[in-house]
Design goal:
disordered N terminus, Potassium Channel Kv1.1, Chain A, alpha+beta, disordered C terminus, 10 helices, 30 strands
C-alpha cells in the first residue's frame, strides 16, 4: 500500500530548476525532525530504502527542497532502529523498540527494516510482533510471524487465544511445517524399481512416518545436495554407485502440485557437498570430485535458471556442516588439531568471514543447527567416539561459547540429522524420532515417536504440505496472504499527513 496520496501532496511545487517537471533533485543530506530530535540523514539512503521519502522527493512538493522535515507519523525509537538497520546493523530489540520499529516500517515503507524484524522473530516476541504488525498493516511481517506462531501453536495456544479473534482464526488457518526425511538412494530403473526411494513426513498426530512422494527414477540422494527453498525440495548431484559417477541433472519437488521437475546441475560436477537454499538461490558448497575435496562454491539463481561461481571456501571441504539463522549462512570447516572454524558467507559481498573458532581436543564439528541468535555445534566424543555426541553453543550477539550440558547418544537419536522448528529440535534414527525442547542453552527431551526405519544417510528438513498431501493430520488449507489478512483488524491505518511544513 502506498503511504502518500494526492491529498497529502497539496503544497506548492518546487522552484523551477530546469529539471523534469514534478521531480526534485535530492540534496546530499536532510535533517529529519522526529519528536524534537533532529537527525542528519543521507538523502540518497532514504530515497533508496524508504518508499515514503522516495515518493516525497519525486512529488513536486516544496518539502523536497527543504533542508529539514518534521515527521509526525513515527516515534523516535522506531526511527533510530531504522537508521541502525539501514547502516548495516542487526540490533536486538526490546518490546518498545519492536513496536516503534513496526510503526516506522509501516508508515515509511522500509523493506530492509521489515526483513530485519522477520529475521528476529522468536517465541518471546512473536505475539507482540503479530498483533502490532496486523494493527499497523505491515502484512508481510504479520504473515511471517503468523507462520512462526503456527509452527509453535501447541506451546503458545493459551497466549494466542488472548489475541483478537480474527488474528487467532488466521493463525489456525495456516499450515504448520512438517518434519521431513529422505534416505540416501542410488538411481533405479523401471524394471528394478526401489519402492524404498521415498520422501516421507512425520504425522505428528498419529506419531508415525508416512510417504509423501517417490523419488524420480533417475535421481540420486547418495552423497547429494538436498535443500528446501521457497517450500520446494531440491536434490542436486549425487552419485550412481561406488564409481562415484555424478548425476548431472537437478530435481525439484513442488508439494503444491505434487510434481517433480528437472533443472541443470552445477557447472563443476561434485558430490558429497552441502546445498543451502537462501533468498531465491541455491548454494552448492565444497564437495568432492574424483575423491579430492573441493573449495569451489556455486550459486543457482532460480529466477533465471543459471549457475555462477562464487568466492571459494577458505579451505577445501566435503560434507560441510551448515546452518542458517536471521538470514545469515554459516558453515563449519575443520582446521585439524581439534579446531573447527565457523565462517559466514555474506552474499552481498560474495565474501567468507571467519566468525569464531571452536577448539576441543580430538573433536570436530559434525553438524550445526541454529536457534534464535545461537549456533549449536554437535561434535564427536573423545578419541573419535562417534557413538557419543557432545555439543557447544555459540551466541552471535554476545560472541561467547557455552558448553551444552549432557551427552547425546546416537543410539537414542542421531544429532547429525537435527532440524529446528520454533523452540524444538527434531532428530531421528532407525529406532526413534526424538523432539528436544531448547531451554536456556539446554536441550531437554520433550517426546519420542517411531523411528524412521531406513538405513543409510538421512537428510532431514521442514516443509509445509498442502491439505491433500497431509489429509490424515486434519490440517486446514493455507490461505493466500492478500485474502487472509483482509479486514483482520479495524485498528489504526496509515496517516496521510506524516510531516509538518517548516
Amino acid at each position: 500500500m502506498k503511504i502518500y496520496s494526492d491529498a497529502m501532496m497539496e503544497s506548492s511545487s518546487c522552484p523551477d530548476s530546469g529539471q523534469e517537471p514534478g521531480r526534485c533533485t535530492p540534496l546530499d543530506s536532510l535533517r529529519v525532525n522526529v519528536q524534537g530530535h533532529v537527525f542528519e540523514v543521507d538523502k540518497a539512503l532514504l530515497a533508496h530504502n524508504c518508499e515514503y521519502f522516495r515518493a516525497l522527493f519525486q512529488s513536486g512538493m516544496r518539502e523536497c527542497q527543504q533542508e529539514e522535515i518534521h515527521l509526525r507519523c513515527v516515534g523516535i525509537l522506531g526511527f533510530l532502529v531504522m537508521l541502525r538497520v539501514l547502516d548495516g546493523e542487526r540490533p536486538v530489540l526490546d518490546e518498545d523498540q519492536i513496536v516503534g520499529a513496526i510503526e516506522c516500517a509501516a508508515f515509511l515503507q522500509v523493506p530492509a527494516l521489515v526483513k530485519h524484524l522477520i529475521d528476529i522473530v522468536n517465541s518471546d516476541n512473536c505475539l507482540l510482533m503479530y498483533h502490532t504488525a496486523a494493527t499497523y498493516g505491515a502484512w508481510e511481517l504479520s504473515h511471517s510471524t503468523a507462520l512462526f506462531i503456527r509452527d509453535m501453536y501447541a506451546d503458545l495456544r493459551e497466549d494466542v487465544h488472548a489475541l483478537p479473534h480474527k488474528l487467532v482464526e488466521y493463525v489456525e488457518s495456516l499450515i504448520p511445517s512438517s518434519y521431513m526425511a529422505v534416505c540416501s538412494h542410488s538411481p533405479s530403473t523401471e524394471l528394478l524399481q526401489d519402492f524404498q526411494r521415498t520422501v516421507c513426513y512425520l504425522d505428528e498426530d498419529n506419531k508415525e512416518w508416512k510417504v509423501l512422494t517417490h523419488l524420480p527414477i533417475s535421481s540420486s540422494t547418495t552423497m547429494a545436495g538436498v535443500a528446501v527453498l521457497d517450500n520446494k525440495l531440491y536434490i542436486v548431484g549425487g552419485v550412481h554407485d561406488v564409481s562415484k559417477k555424478v548425476v548431472e541433472t537437478g530435481f525439484c519437488y513442488n508439494p503444491a502440485s505434487d510434481t517433480w521437475s528437472t533443472f541443470c546441475g552445477p557447472q563443476q560436477l561434485r558430490y558429497n557437498f552441502t546445498l543451502i537454499g537462501h533468498e531465491g538461490c541455491l548454494y552448492a558448497i565444497g564437495g568432492e570430485q574424483e575423491l579430492k575435496a573441493m573449495s569451489s562454491v556455486e550459486r543457482y539463481t532460480v529466477s533465471n535458471r543459471s549457475w555462477s561461481f562464487l568466492s571459494h571456501l577458505p579451505s577445501p571441504a566435503a560434507s560441510v556442516a551448515s546452518a542458517k539463522t536471521m538470514s545469515r549462512i554459516f558453515v563449519c570447516l575443520w582446521k585439524g588439531k581439534g579446531a573447527t572454524d565457523i565462517h559466514e558467507y555474506v552474499p552481498e559481498k560474495d565474501q567468507w568471514t571467519l566468525v569464531t573458532t571452536l577448539v576441543r581436543e580430538q573433536s570436530y564439528g559434525l553438524c550445526m543447527v541454529a536457534h534464535k541468535d545461537s549456533l549449536y555445534v554437535m561434535r564427536n566424543g573423545p578419541c573419535n567416539d562417534f557413538l557419543l555426541c557432545l555439543m557447544d553453543c555459540y551466541n552471535l550477539s554476545s560472541c561467547q561459547w557455552t558448553k551444552v550440558p549432557g551427552q547425546y547418544l546416537n543410539s537414542k537419536g542421531s544429532l547429525l540429522t537435527a532440524v529446528v522448528r520454533g523452540d524444538s529440535v527434531f532428530t531421528l534414527n532407525r529406532k526413534v524420532t526424538t523432539e528436544y525442547s531448547i531451554e536456556d542453552y539446554k536441550w531437554r527431551t520433550k517426546c519420542e515417536t517411531a523411528g524412521f526405519g531406513r538405513i543409510g544417510t538421512i537428510y532431514t528438513f521442514l516443509m509445509r504440505l498442502p491439505k491433500t498431501a497431509a489429509s490424515t493430520t486434519g490440517r486446514p488449507q493455507d490461505h493466500t496472504l492478500a485474502r487472509g489478512f483482509e479486514g483482520l483488524l479495524d485498528g489504526p491505518r496509515l496517516s496521510v499527513q506524516c510531516f509538518d511544513n517548516v
